[in-house]
């Protein structure tokens, strides 16, 4: 996996030994997402998934010690097997956008663009994510979290790799 900051965006690239259609499928269906998305060791519960432009993915994550937090995606663009664009935010149980539980300085919304390309049965994903409608302080906080986000996505994508090997 490679990870870098480009301006205000975190850019992560990783290769998976699975066909692009399968990689796309595990990003687009609740029964798959619950098996790999989120921090390592957390249990993911799906409250709802409506995978279409204008739709959403609303979920909770629970740590081994019982701490629970909610989040959601709002999908903006979907090109089957090629690209997904969504905005991520922390939420409450009803799906309302709320501040991150770990800091009031974390941006309310992060725009993400996932692209998938296939080469001889392997799929390269590139995930670009950065704050939208953020203050200068929120932008600075986001870029200051680079190492933490790199580790977090590394562990999440390790879970994805392990899951792809089983499905």
UniProtKB/TrEMBL annotation:
InterPro entries in the cross-refs: ASHA1/2-like_C (IPR013538), START-like_dom_sf (IPR023393)
Family matches, as Gene3D superfamilies: 3.30.530.20
Domain Activator of Hsp90 ATPase homologue 1/2-like C-terminal, residue spans: 18-164
CDD domains: SRPBCC_CalC_Aha1-like
Pfam families: AHSA1
Family to which this protein belongs: Belongs to the AHA1 family.
Name the record gives this protein: SRPBCC domain-containing protein
